[in-house]
Amino acid sequence: MKLLNFGFVVAAFGFDVSYDEESVNQMENAEIAEIPHHSENMDLGWAGAREPRGWGEYYDWVNILDATEEFAEDKPILLLVIPEDCDDCVHCSAIREEFKNNQELLKISKHFHVVNFLGYEESQAHWDPKIANAHYFPRFYFLEAHGDIIPWAVNTLRKDDRVFYYNHASEILNTAKEVFHGYYKYKHDEL
């Protein structure tokens, strides 16, 4: 399910996931917004910050444009964090504290590009409104270099359609470990 073509287009990451035929058709037929050519004069706030925004100063934060230009064999995966852009999101505040203090997660994150989109308002203008309909925060997505959401990289503890929502940093860590080991096992098997 292609949601992002790096360097050319950005599409929605924010949707309530259900892998039924209607959702897949909707995503495949969605209009994709183009990433404008960036210049010195353009505001690229929507691309995500290069600073932690309270999510942990020791993570190697990049914006989406940096990540698209820097994908390499040693960092082929992107972890996209989409928190709410306000201080009254109880879930964001709780998991943010766990996220920034989780040493294991920090260690494994060195193998990923980590991008922080601030939430609905910041990125909505660059997403197709037909699929940018998730109103739960925070969301965490693992993407491959060619822009696909890794379909099995979800919170397996969720029994609803909010599989990109995590209650605790330890749940994100479990998914990050699966992605790390799954990707490198796949690459090893490919050789």
Quick structural gist:
It comes from Oikopleura dioica (Tunicate). The protein has 191 residues and is of the alpha/beta class.
Q: Can you walk through the features of this model?
A:
Keywords: Signal. This is Thioredoxin domain-containing protein. Pfam families: Thioredoxin_7. The chain is globular, with a radius of gyration of 16 Å. The longest helix has 22 residues, at 169-190. It has one domain: Glutaredoxin (3-Layer(aba) Sandwich). By secondary structure, it is an alpha/beta fold. Helices cover 31% and strands 13% of the residues. The protein contains six helices and seven strands, in the order E-E-H-E-E-H-E-H-H-E-H-E-H.
Question: What would the keywords be for this entry?
Answer:
31% helix; disordered N terminus; 191 residues; signal; Glutaredoxin; single chain; three-stranded antiparallel β-sheet; alpha/beta; four-stranded mixed β-sheet; globular
Tell me the number of strands.
Answer: 7
Give the ordered list of helices and strands.
EEHEEHEHHEHEH
Q: SS-based structural class? A: alpha/beta
Helix run count = 6
* Name of the CATH first level: Alpha Beta
Shape descriptor: globular
What's the structural domain tally? 1
Major pleated sheet: 4 strands, mixed
CATH superfamily: Glutaredoxin
Spatial separation of the terminal alpha carbons: 25 Å
Percent of residues in helices comes to: 25-40%
Strand order of the largest sheet: 4-6-5-7
